[in-house]
């Protein structure tokens, strides 16, 4: 496992001392994923409080009637319980369609199914694993999330905090790519070329028998804080299995407003 730190000695449901919060805020960039085990019940209210350690909450999504708090996105395998098919259109970071993509995502599995991992990939390692030729091509690409909104981000850029190379991408929500943005050679891809590039990114993520991927099998009481700009993720197909087969899956997700526009 290349990313993630397991934390067993912090009780997020209760007040957490200032120094520990500071340490968490630092370590989330170092490990990219902090996986807190054996948490007591975390209410929507408490998840929002924890989320505020990292900045301002921003919720851009449909509000499910069963959501415990207006800022908590409730995801489920049962549409009566939460939004379904979330994160299933492809590998992505959250908020790639925003001028400033979300800085952090916080996940609490309020009801744990028998199957239904969330898969994560460390983006710096992904970039470092590319052949020179592929890296050089990707360095020339910008992702056009939405042509009308003119949301255009460099595919590879430096993480605003760690300065490591990282990726701004969404394999299910990209209108086009732009080659060589802001140069005379600037050129927008057509749909066949766009899908070919999306497939190439997918292939690089899952290569070598998924050795770059950490697939998190959720257990009761798990709470994950992710450096959303440093890891890509995808809901695995099993996340959509019906509750009659795998039990009810309910994920409470909060996201933190970005404060940086990805720049080359
Ligand atoms: O359901 C999951 O495991 C993750 C879904 C997702 O992409 C998200 O909540 O941002
Ligand atoms: Fe997501």
UniProtKB/TrEMBL annotation:
Record's keyword terms, sorted: Dioxygenase, Iron, Metal-binding, Oxidoreductase
Coiled coil: none
All copies of domain TauD/TfdA-like, residue ranges: 9-254
Listed InterPro entries: TauD-like_sf, TauD/TfdA-like, TfdA_dioxygenase
GO molecular function: dioxygenase activity; metal ion binding
SUPFAM superfamilies named in the record: Clavaminate synthase-like
The family this protein is said to belong to: Belongs to the TfdA dioxygenase family.
Protein name: TauD/TfdA-like domain-containing protein
Top-level taxonomy: Eukaryota, Metazoa, Spiralia, Lophotrochozoa, Mollusca
């Amino acid at each position: 496992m290349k990313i993630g730190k397991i934390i067993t000695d912090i009780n997020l449901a209760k007040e957490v001392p200032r120094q520990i919060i500071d340490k968490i805020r630092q370590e989330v960039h170092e490990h990219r994923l902090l996986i807190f085990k054996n948490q007591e019940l975390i209410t929507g209210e408490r998840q929002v409080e924890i989320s505020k350690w990292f900045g301002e909450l921003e919720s851009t999504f449909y509000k499910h009637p069963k959501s415990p708090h207006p800022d908590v996105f409730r995801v489920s395998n049962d549409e009566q319980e939460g939004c379904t098919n979330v994160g299933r259109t492809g590998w992505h970071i959250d908020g790639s369609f925003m001028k400033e993509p979300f800085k952090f995502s916080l996940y609490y599995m309020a009801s744990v199914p028998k199957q239904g991992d969330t898969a994560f990939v460390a983006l710096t390692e992904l970039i470092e694993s590319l052949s020179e030729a592929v890296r050089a091509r990707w360095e020339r690409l910008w992702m056009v999330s939405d042509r009308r909104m003119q949301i255009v981000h460099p595919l590879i850029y430096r993480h605003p905090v760690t300065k490591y190379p990282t990726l701004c991408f969404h394999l299910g929500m990209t209108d086009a790519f732009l080659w060589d943005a802001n140069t005379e050679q600037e050129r927008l891809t057509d749909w066949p070329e766009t899908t070919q590039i999306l497939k190439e990114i997918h292939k690089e993520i899952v290569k070598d028998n998924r050795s770059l991927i950490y697939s998190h099998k959720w257990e009761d009481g798990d709470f994950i804080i992710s450096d959303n700009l440093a890891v890509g993720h995808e809901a695995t197909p099993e996340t959509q299995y019906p509750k009659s087969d795998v039990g009810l899956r309910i994920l409470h997700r909060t996201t933190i407003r970005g404060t940086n526009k990805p720049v080359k």
